[in-house]
Each structure stands twice: as structure tokens, then as C-alpha cells.
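Two entries, shown back to back:
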Amino acid sequence: MKHPQKTLNLKNNVCRAAAVCFALAAVGVANAQSKVDNEAGFIIPNANGLFPGGDLQFIASGQSGFLGMFGGTGYWNSGLTYTEGTTVTLTMQYFYDTANSSPAFQFTVVNGSSTATSPVQDYPAGGSLVGDTVGAYYQIQNDPSFPGNSGQAVYGNINMTLGSINSAVITPRVFNDIPGATGTYLNSYPGSITLGEAGVSAPTGFADRDIWQFANGGTAYTFGAADYFTASMTLDITGNDVVPEPSTMALLGLGLLPLARRFSRRA
């Protein structure tokens, strides 16, 4: 997912950027960190080619705060904002919309005390889930300037109403643009699944992505057209955000960092 460009607003001492940034006061530093660019949520990979929008992704973003879905049958922004390190609940329904005589989806987000539900999204004529799989993913984008670029997603209380589903399978690195990163993959379905990546930093490359899929007998389940279901899970995304060393923060708070750098160059 591509995220909106961040802006810098010095007038209000607010700093939002993809790199470390600071809002300076006479003494002290505020907002001295940047968010790891990672995201996670449900995914249906459009294996049958019947989604007009490509892969269906129903997600939370640890960096931009987006909570909603895109691809697949359309686009929906819940209007709620995800905060990294907190837990949200995502629910996805696949059902037959009798009003329009079509298989359809509907999505619900619970974020703290707030709940948002999408409009019904129908498949185009003749479309269905037949031949596709359903699961979830974790993606972290490469940051060449931050060797410690790391994060993870924890999926909990996983529920799938379709009786044919009795397990889940993990497939690491469906995107493997930074092969030197270290992965963590823990499967305790349906209680929890953890997907994590550490050291996602290389001169080039877009991202690493891991997925898990609902399964039967340890094999990813291929859905039929009428395999209607409700799937839900909790989701918690964390990232090893960039935070300056205490000595750097102190210099910034005192306005001495430029002076320190000047003396360092002279030495």
C-alpha cells in the first residue's frame, strides 16, 4: 500500500515525516521518532482473476493509521485511525446478497470504543470467490537508512465460521526484496499467529511480505463459490521506530546540535 505524503508544520510544532524529525522548544524535544512503514490485515489474492480491483486487502497501517480496505470489490475508509501498538478487531463477511443476486463482502472495524461497518460490496456479474484463498499478511517496507528497521503483526482470537477450515498455514516472503532480513513466524491457530521481520534494510528493494492462509488439514483451503463465511481476528502491529539517542535529544533541546557538529568537523 502506498501512503499519503507526510507534511511538516513548524507553526504548530508538529512534525510528520518518513524520517526522524523534531519539534523543538526552548528546552526538550517532542515527537522525536518516525514510524516504521508496515501494515497488516486480511488478504484475498485474486487467484481466480474475478476481482476488478486485484488483491482484496482489509488492513491497518502502522505508519499512516489507515483502517479500511482496497482492491477486490472496491475501496472503503473506515474513518477511524489506527495507532501502532494498539489492538483492533477486523471482521470480514462473504455472503449472498439477495437484493442484488450476487456474492458480496462487508467489512467491520472495532477500534477501542468505536465501530465502523462498510457498505455491502457486490462482485461484478458472474464473480465469486471460487478457486481463491483467504488469509492475512504482514508487510514491512525497506528503509535503507535504518539498519534496525523491524516490526511484527500479531493476529489473535482468529475465528472462521466455515466448517471446512480447521488450521492455518504460513508462507514466508511472498515478497522477498530484502532477503537478508530475519523472519519470525509463529503459528498457534486459532489462538494467535505472529509474523515479524527484523533488519529490513538494504540499498534497494521495496518490501518483505509474509502471509498465512486458512487451511484444511495443513493445506491452504481453496474456496468454492458458495463457501460463505464470517472471519474475524484481533490485530496488533508494532514497529522498531527510530528514536534519537538521549545525548542527541539533549543537544537538540538546548539548540546545541549544530554547534556540536561544527566542533566535530574541526576536530
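entry 2 starts here
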Amino acid sequence: MKARHKTSSLNNRGKSKLGKYNVSESKAVRIKSVRRLAAKQFVNIIEHINDGLVVLDKDWHYVYVNQKAAVILLAGVVLTGCAISTVQSRKQQRYGAYEALTPEMRGLVDQGQIKVGMPMDAVYIAWGPFGRVLQGENEAGKTITWVYYGSYVQEVRYWGYRNLHYDYYPATYVRAQAVFVNGVLKSWQNFGAPPY
């Protein structure tokens, strides 16, 4: 396989073909130099603006996200998740189930905490909506597992033209799970966020 060089080819009159124009070799070198300088300046401007910038391709995939936009996107993800469902709103949704809890369980639920022995409604009020339901069976009977997901913005670093570039992509992870047997919480686990 022949190696390609980024030099312009000469036509039979000693002129270089650059794009659709025929220019002399020295002009071609100058034009390429100006283009490289303009590209560097453009990247430098984009990396140092104070506003959030997100660049998407034609298929709506992230091409570039600067640090300010990553912070804004992460805040949006966090605030949207918090604004949709709170302990107070879930207590109102399942008021009867909340009132039927013991005072100790009500105190835990009010703090967003759970404890083995709680009914499913108490766990729902404390932790909120789950992302997935798994069904199974063990020696005690049929089990139902609620899987809770979290989200974060994952940073990806790579070398581009003479610079280290940063991209940020939204990602999900399994945050916690609660296992019920006969409608009563038998075990639970918090997994925590992945390292950044």
C-alpha cells in the first residue's frame, strides 16, 4: 500500500490543483497554511468560550460538548429526575399506605431510607420509581427485584490534531436494587456511582 502525502499534485503546467482551482505550488502551500491556522483558531475559540456548546451530527450523535455544556446537561439530568418525583409527592400518591406504616417506618421513609421488613409501598415512597423489575424464586418463595438506575456524564479523552480533546456522553449505571419476597423487603443494596 502506498503512503499518501498531504502535498498537492502538480498538473502538466507546473500548477497545483487545490480544490477546483489551479494555483501555483507556493500559493497552495500558503492556502493550506492559512487553513490550518484558521482551524487552530476555531478550535481555540470554541474551547475557551464561556457558554455551553453542544455540536451534534446529522444523526443527532454528540460530536463535541464543552465543559460548560457538560455541567449544564448534568444539572438538567439531576434536576429533572428530582423534580419529577419527591418523597412528598409519593406520600400523597400513596397516602393510605403511608398512614398504615409504623411510626419508625414513617420516619425512615420521610428521610428516603429503607429497612428490611418494609412493604413495597414504603420502599416506593422512600426511593421512588424503579427502572426495571426482575422476577425470580428462592427457597422462601417468589421474588421481585426493583432495579434503580442513576445517570452521569462520562468524559472521554482522545488526541486530535495536536490537542487533547474531551467529549462528554450521558451514561447510566445500576444505582441500587431492592429484593421483595411476598411483598416484603428481604434485602437491598446501594452500588454507588462509577468512578469518573
